[in-house]
Amino acid sequence: MMTILIILAVLLAILTIGQLLRVFEASSKLNGGTSLLPTVAENKYQGRSMFIFMLGFFAFFIWCMVEYGPYLLPEAASEHGVLLDRLLNFNFAIITLVFVITHAILFYFAMKYAYHPERKAYYFTHSNKLELLWTIVPAIFLAVIIVYGLSAWISITDDAPEGSLTIELYPKQFDWTARYSGEDAQLGASNYNMISGTNPLGLITDGSLDQMMSELEAEIAEIKVDLESAPVDGMKQEDLTETLGKRERQLNRVRGFRSFEAANRASGNDDILVKTEFYIPVGREIDFKFRSRDVIHSAYFPHFRAQMNCVPGMVTQFHFKPTITTAQMKAKTQNDDFDYLVLCNKICGAAHYNMSIVIKVVEEDEYNAWIAEQKTFSETISPADESEETASIVSEDAISMIEE
Amino acid sequence: MISKQFLITGMTMAVIGMIMSTLFRLQLGWQGESFAILNFFLGDKWAPDGILDPNMYLALVTIHGTIMVFFLLTGGLSGTFANLLIPLQIGARDMASGFINLLSYWFFLASSVIMISSLFVETGPASGGWTVYPPLSALPQAMPGSGMGMTLWLVSMSLFVVSSLLGGLNYVVTVINLRTKGMTMTRLPLSVWALFVTAVIGVLSFPVLFSAALLLIFDRMFGTAFYLSDIHIAGEVLEATGGSPILYEHLFWFLGHPEVYIVLLPALGITSEVIATNARKPIFGYRAMIGSILAIAFLSFIVWGHHMFLTGMNPFLGSVFTFTTLLIAIPSAVKAFNYITTLWKGNVRLTPAMLFSIGMVSTFISGGVTGIILADSALDINLHDTYFVVAHFHIVMGLSAVLAMFAGVYHWFPKMYGRMMNRKMGYVHFWVTFICAYGVFFPQHFLGLAGIPRRYYTNSEFPIFDDLLGLNELVSVFAIIGAMVQFLFIFNFFYSMRRGQRATQNPWGSNTLEWTTPVEHVHGNWYGALPTVHRWPYDYSKPGKEQDFVPQDVPLEEDEMDGGEGH
């Protein structure tokens, strides 16, 4: 009902405007007709409006800065971030100056030179001098901007220094997992064929290999059983055959990982996986590595002035040194609920808007204490592994005891 | 006439794209609140209880972007004005090939129809952003919009590329071959120069988009792995290996960047004509303007990587693209300064078209300067994919190019329909649009600087952005008012077509050849012989002349120099 009324109202409004226009035109014909071109009065009025718009625009700019300026990002929480903020302010100073001057002139001219029948325009076709002036002056400014910007970029994108803490941030639809390299400071080898419920990042270790192979073998056996009872040439048989093929090929690929060097296969054992929130020590260079499980995501750390796309099929990286702890930033922003966040910043699906992980920046000792508490990958993947190990140790001891 | 067909189709698509933007602005301004109008347009499936579904939100932003960039600002802008202005302004009877021209329009219409039809499929239209990066757009299991909707998007865009190429080839050949006697390249109006160079850019770059789309079709339908590797999704290991999503990005942006200049150059060309005519002054620096158009065209091919600074590509490439992108600021600046100098000591008629052109210069500068910030790879680190980027490209495209398109419509309406558009409505349309459009996009710079990412269904998920929710509301209010006033323009357009004040042959006192054709349309454009050109198109207020304009086909007097010569 409402929609019908609204549609009727809109139609009536259109008809009304149409009729008003006809009245206006009829009456203006009586007055001698409207000119095809704007009248002197219209020109004057529009010219003034242009100038007033400019004043209003500048006022709006200032209002936005006053009203919303305080809610922009707090001071940069990383070493290079401070550098970037300076670069940004430098650029803003230049472009704001250009913006204000050009707009003032543009809108002032629109008012000052508004049409008057007595006025004759100045037939000024070109001036090579002026063209050179405003080619060279911008070029000089841009040269400075380029050099300043590139020197920042080159230093930021340089390889991470020795002694950095390497952390992988692994996104998938729709969450993040942080992986620490553990005692050996090496991120363990991984492959997407190894991904399972207990091995979400697909790490390749002896333990995970065993698990993956037995899981796949069990699934293959089950499919074969189902295939026997499936009606011949039916949809079910087709689906099952296809799945069987996929699993068998996956199993072959997984078997292939066993030929990785022992050292490679062991490096993942001490890796630590963490979700929801992860800790990093302040004042230490952190070398972030990124992969992705499914689609392109992007790790955006706005407070640290850091961002890097996470692309399935390749490893990307970004390093920075955090300089302000979470506690310090809480104090600075006078907000006890403040937390540093990593946000997803590349469209990745329905919950793209709600895909984050908290970073806790803490003092070195607090970090050490925290990391010591975390479970390693080998501990989480199969507690059974551990008991097997202890069993073999016990039996060895038993044997040696007996021998003694 | 084909230009009218392109214009009406472009306007129709634009209205659809604009309504989409008001719908998602309702969600962004008043997060999670129920609006009956959302349910009215999107039904119970995509807006249950009047609340926008997150997948449909992404679909709306995707199709909004696709429609506005391609269907309005490429098809609608180039299609309308190239078909209208090129034959008339160079003094030709018709385009080089009427048949190819016809095809270019019908492919455009077919493409539009298919794009709109994709809105109605069960899994929804394409939703991976107008850039549709794989793997998101390659895998239906990644999001519903990557199902049938994405297939239709690819079909539609393939047809669109065909339309653009057909049109572009025609424009290039016509300008090169069919100029009338005396119409040397350096006597061409800047609108023709701009449309000509735009067509060249299009012919060189659109095929690359087509190849990107084709490889994506292969990945989706034929089991190839151009863009896919190492993917585990929806519980399954995908067997495609060896490809890279970055390949798609390179191919897409190789068109994508020239594309924005395909959008912008015709707008700049139109602005040159409207400003010179209405300021009653020659466009300042005609040769420099041509040079800038050529420089922008050339440079536009070597800057695409600035869309990819953070893809993980070699940082050295980032440096190269920062350098080339900042270079492109120079010819752009030259053009802006030349427009302003054209106004200086002019005698400026502030018609609606002129107001829109001045608005174009203003937004070209505003949007252009934030481009300088984004061009800097180091600064892009914290601004990439935030609202700062959204603000930048909307101000240069959604404002600058659209304002120029409006200027073109108001200015050449008398040529198209033999009547004038209503001036008072034009003024209202300009002011409300200009104020609201800046009101929508200027604040978004602040949202971006605060770190708010784009393509987010809601900005209320993270407390760090809570203080800026009010700004989202303000933006939405401006957006809705700005959208509504466009209906005034549409009313003015169609009303004036029938009942507008009748136009004279040359209502604006303009020098270019299109105003020497009779008001009623004649097949072959002129009765009798084609005009012969004796001078450049910018003899406005020339000293020693009775009137403040001298059309191009008026012979030179004894001892008179052609104003365009001798630099």
Write the layout of secondary structure elements.
The complex is a heterodimer of chains A (about 400) and B (about 575).
Chain A (H helix, E strand, L loop, with lengths): L1 H29 L9 H29 L10 H34 L15 H29 L8 E8 L2 E6 L25 H24 L5 H22 L5 H5 L5 E4 L1 E5 L4 E5 L6 E5 L4 E5 L5 E5 L5 H8 L6 E5 L11 E7 L1 H10 L3 H5 L1 H21 L1
Parallel strand pairs in A: 1-5, 4-10
Antiparallel strand pairs in A: 1-2, 2-3, 5-8, 6-7, 6-9, 9-10
Chain B lengths: L1 H28 L6 H11 L7 H37 L7 H20 L30 H30 L12 H32 L10 E2 L2 E2 L7 H35 L6 H14 L15 H13 L1 H15 L8 H24 L1 H7 L3 H31 L5 H19 L2 H6 L19 H31 L68
Antiparallel strand pairs in B: 1-2
Summarize the structure in words:
The complex is a heterodimer of chains A (404) and B (567). Chain A is of the alpha+beta class. Among the domains of chain A are: 162-181 and 271-382, Cupredoxins -  blue copper proteins (Immunoglobulin-like), CATH 2.60.40.420; 193-268. Chain A is 53% helix and 14% strand. Chain A has a 5-stranded mixed β-sheet with strand order 3-2-1-5-8, with no helix packed on it. The model of chain A is unreliable at 385-404 (pLDDT under 50). In chain B, helix 11 runs parallel beside helix 14 (423-441). The model of chain B has no long low-confidence stretch (mean pLDDT 95). Chain B has a single domain, classed as Cytochrome c oxidase-like, subunit I domain (Cytochrome C Oxidase, Chain A). Chain B has helices at residues 2-29, 36-46, 54-90, 98-117, 148-177, 190-221, 245-279, 286-299, 315-327, 329-343, 352-375, 377-383, 387-417, 423-441, 444-449, 469-499; strands at residues 232-233, 236-237. With 567 residues, chain B is mainly alpha-helical. The two termini of chain B are 39 Å apart. Helices cover 62% and strands 1% of the residues of chain B. Chain B has a two-stranded antiparallel ribbon. Chain B contains 16 helices and 2 strands. Chains A and B meet through helix 1, helix 2, helix 3, helix 4 and helix 6 of A and helix 3, strand 1, strand 2, helix 7 and helix 8 of B.
